[in-house]
Fold these 2 entries.
Entry 1:
Amino acid sequence: MTLTQKETTLLQDLKAQEQLCIEKYNKYAGLAHDPELKNLFTTLAGNEQKHLDTVNQILNGTEVKMPDQSPSAVQAKLQCKVSCCNEVEKKNDAYLCKDALSMEKHVAGVYNMGVFEFSSPVLRDTLAHIQKEEQNHGEQLYNYLSCNNMYC
């Protein structure tokens, strides 16, 4: 499989974005006070690592095909009460979560651009699949914020 220069550039951007997501989620897992949020950040870091692995495979010339079914949103089992945290800690967790949500919105947009720019139908489907997973990450973050009265 041969990629165009534009496709390669987009993939390199996606690679950098995924690396940043992994780094942020791992850092945020260490900074979060609520164990539920720590767990969410750790889970999302693992998901982003899978995305990075896929992007690297494509950059190495492999036409990666994702499962046929569209990824569905994971129903997070959140407790809508943060009892472990004082107001300062809760405010810190809200900041981390809102920043992560903003990051997911940006990354989903970058994948969306890729969907329109790739010539291979298989790779367009792969990027669309990952984009949907990024949207699901955003939904999980939003649900946490909303559930804990942190979203405004």
Entry 2:
Amino acid sequence: MKNKESILNLLQKNARLSNKDIADSLDISESEVQKTIKTLESKGVIIRYSTILNYNHPDTKTKIRALIELSIRPEKKEGYSAIAKRISENSFVIDHYLVSGNYDFLIIMEGSTLQEISEFVSEFASMENISKTATHVILKTYKENGVPFNPTDKEKRLPISP
């Protein structure tokens, strides 16, 4: 259904759009928008609406995010499922993906300190089925979920002169 995909695209760009705004944009009735969204929510297509925070901004509480790659030895009967469940249940885990390439899992985690990140990685690196890890701490975010952060702000750096 074309309207369903169009509604989802609009909501992904801005979940705060009203049903009226969506209806006007797609030239359909507000009731059709409302019915479609309710159906998508009840089917589990739309799971949650969220907000993207700019952690580069001084008014936000600083969080440390890291990308963690894990190489896994799948369990005989469960494959990746059992270990994926254990990892996903950890409160530090924001996103968790099964990926192709040199590693099997890509995890995005969030902590308050580097120590929390380190403890998380140590905990999972010592699990029986994990054979290799790589950790990348995010130093600055330039774009997230398609949203650029401060695209016109100039970096405030001291000029280097000889």
